[in-house]
Design goal:
With 287 residues, the protein is mainly α. The chain is built from 13 helices and no strands.
Length: 287
Amino acid sequence: MIQNLPNQQKGSLLAFIGVVLITPDSLFIRLANIETWGMIFYRGTIPFVVVLIGLLLFYKKNFFNALISIGYPGIFYVLSFAVCNITFIISIQNTNVANTLIMVAMAPMLSAILAAIFLKEAPDKKTWIAIIITFLSVAYIFYDSIQLGNFLGDFFGFITALGLAINANLARYAKDRDLVPSAVIGKLCVAIFALFFVESFELTKNDLIIVPLMCVMCVAIPFVLVTIAPRFITAAEVNLFFLLEVILGPVWVWLVVKEQPSLETILGGIVIILTIAIHSFMALKKT
């Protein structure tokens, strides 16, 4: 059925479903009782196995050729992807969910800066204005986090956004290569790295359901959908859908575990979300 849709509707549907599935991710992280490195291990291992099976079915005999063809950009992508998978969990464990997701929402702006430096793709005036506004808003949230003792979590959230921005630029630089195998290897690296720090692999009570469900529904499946979506719609359109996670993620956490972000986070987050939304709409209009 989806194959018969026009590219615009096809890409939008894939991105929408992928992002909606991601939105409860932060809530599942909060509800899980497993320690941080155990969670990171499972979030590396289970998506690795699920997506690897999918790639083997897709590539069949060409799988190893696809793996080798990632080249040096693919290796850097592996490292960056693995790092931001780890820092995302550490961030959520050390600050409010809203703070982490707002930091992650900065990825498009950071991507524009990196593109200007390394790919010589200078942002236009509107993008520079958006970058300045988002950075001022983040500085405002960081100042509040220092007062509340959440600075470490916000810092790792910023590192996650930086990793995502690096990934976006690597994908653009190596647009003639398929970097999906790199992301799969990145998940394996996450699991291997976590092995050195895991205190217990045991899943008890609700974790027997929460952890596998989170890894498949909120990590593996959305990863595939959001990776395919940009083949049919622009990056600006995909970024707009990701704003749903920034809005709905903290809402699920607030409704279930009553975690309420500070007023400063709410105000700074609103400014960042509106800035990115307006910038993406203008980019779409220009396209």
